[in-house]
Protein 1
Amino acid sequence: MPIVKLRLLATLIGLIIYFGPIAPTNAQLPQRCQEIIMQVMSSDGYLTRDMHNEFWDSLEQALPSQADISVFEQYFSENILYAQDYQLELFTSAQLSLKAGEVLTTNRFEKLAKGSNKAGQEDIAAEFLESAAYGSVISRPDGRTLVVIQEVVDSTLPSIASSFARLKRLGTKTWDAS
């Protein structure tokens, strides 16, 4: 699998670990919204006004009311910084685990993981870190597989802040060109 696809998959796993179902309404994000998020979050990602508009048009079709859209926007805004910190610490822990050949985590990751009440998050994070430490294969429900390798971690870590800055802009209904 090409490195770009591995980076996308690794980034998506990081988001899934934190967000799970991204909206608190239990509604699944439309497929096109998920695709846009993957593009925005990739290490070489970008966000255009057209992508932003398409994301929100799809989201408005999927969510039944303006109240649900407001809840989504608020939830997204409140959780984005925590998710960024969580992903940064997850990938830093993966980097440590790759080098040590055993699962190691940062103190900050431990605190963030304890503060989370996301069902299944710990199992997914453990699987991700075990893959980094031992080279085990992660199998996703969609049939794709991933092995966490140094190149993926090294290329993902520096891009996490810019990826989340784009995601924050995407998660606000009003377009911000900055």
Protein 2
Amino acid sequence: MRRWLFGLAVVSALAAGCHDNSYMSASVTNQKGDPAAVIDFKAAISIPEGSAATADIALISHSNKVLSGDIQSGDPTVLRILRLTTDPSGYAFLGSTSGKTSVLVTINGQQVQSVSATVVAPPTSSLPPTVDAGIPSVTTPEAGAPEAALPEAAP
């Protein structure tokens, strides 16, 4: 009788494990927006400052079912994350200020994952310093100079 009960307990435990609805991972699909943005919950999240990207994110259980949960920024002054109203699994990632933060995955009020996130400062300008600083170049005449005037129209 004890062996039978033990066997039943083992089979029940295995069957329960096959239907494990605990969080396993976040699946990211349909990413759009800035091509330099990387939304990868297995590694890290990176987005350029001042840019935006959207993605569909499904929270997946160990039994490959979609779980209900939320994704939030650890510091919205660095990275803002907004849920899209037009897509129940859609999120927008907005790089507000360069810096580091984390992206938090919560299910039923419990934090189940934290992913490092970096908002990357924009690259330094590739324009020559004189153009970048607004200083006119040698070939550009000053406004009001005779050579800057348009030619007279012929009568």
Protein 3
Amino acid sequence: MASTAGTDSPASSTAARLARGELFSALAAELAGGPVVCARLRREIAPALSPREACLLEAHRGGSGLVVRRSGLLRGPAGAVARVTAVYLPTRIGDPGVRRALWESDVPLGVALGPLGARRESLRAWVNGRGEVRSAGLLLLGDVPVALAEEELLPVL
């Protein structure tokens, strides 16, 4: 269940938007003052899902043989706005062009999956004791989970 602390601050408002299921990449673009890319992107084929990831991504449905992990910084015109990590299951993404873009380019996960009708199911969105917004969510295509993402908004300088 998603949780947010208070509703007075911009951080709390941001956490509340994430808790309601807004795609993180759309929010990041708004905060960055324009389109975002994933800078310092690292991607790797992972040997397997962790037990937690397998449960959340419903590995029993099949299509979980190939596992890709991505991490990096979401950056836009105003600079870096978030640190992101994700694990996704390419075989659950029916569009080969989207699969290729996720592997070969700096496109953020939500930007690539958005046109396919992706929606976010918030697992948690909160403001920690230092006022930082953190969130975690599943990205689904239809009712099928394709990715698990975690985000940390960076302080605006």
Protein 4
Amino acid sequence: MAVGDVVNAIGSATGDFTYTPAAGVEVMVLSVLGSANGQAWLARVAAPAQSGRLYIQQGTIFQPIGLNVKMAINNTIYLQVNSNTYPAAFSGIQIK
């Protein structure tokens, strides 16, 4: 892939969905989709569970995550989305 290419992914099941770019690649996340009661966060690679997380959105019981953001991620700071009723997804653009 090259700079300017669209990057997106859809999880195959409910639960935690993780996207980590390859080493040397940076992606600008533009949109995240998760379910009601789900969460989206940026996390550090190899961080212990529940630590090293920056929560960027948390759904409520009635409102699913439908998040429009502009957050850069790379191989060290990556994207995780928890979705408990349907698979999570995200879309972005490769910037490096």
